[in-house]
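A quick aside before the break. I want you to see a complete sequence-to-structure record at least once, exactly as it would be stored in a machine-readable document. Don't worry about memorizing anything.
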Amino acid sequence: MRVDVNGVGIEYEVTGEGRPVVLLHGFPDSGRLWRHQVPALADAGFKVIVPDLRGYGRSDKPAEVAAYTMDLLVGDVLAVLGDAGAERAHIVGHDWGAGVAWATALMAAERVERLVALSVGHRATFFADGFEQYEKSWYMLLFQFSEIAEEWLSGNNWANFRAWATTPTSMRRSPNWRQTAH
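That is the input. The structure line, written in tokens, reads:
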């Protein structure tokens, strides 16, 4: 399915019937991230709505940075909800999708039945945690510079990407690695 949001096409899939749940993927994923959760949720009686966020997957990818403001991303989620016939929904977000989920709950609380944020807390806690959190989130800065991240990650036959995307063994040994890893 596809909905047009002020000239930007947002692709999404709907599986099942019942109470709506929207699954928002993170960076650098697409809605395919949720492929294992969708059948389980549909079997549990949910109408599972999975968009490719603006700039990802099969959705349009506007070139302008200004086309990715949080109010526009929330507008995309609301347009998908409307197009799918869902007045209210459970909103689940992972990584970047968690940020969009938080913003959707803040900007359109009446449309959100429940909020689930995975891997990313509310942005106020991000800023409150100081340098240690910034140090763990260094990659966010990397992606602010055009083509730098792409060059670095794809270099040396994608070795940097593999290293970046893998949780270090030393952190996995820690009983709190899930809290301390990005």
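Two observations worth writing down. The longest helix spans residues 148-165. The mean pLDDT is 87. We'll return to this after the break.
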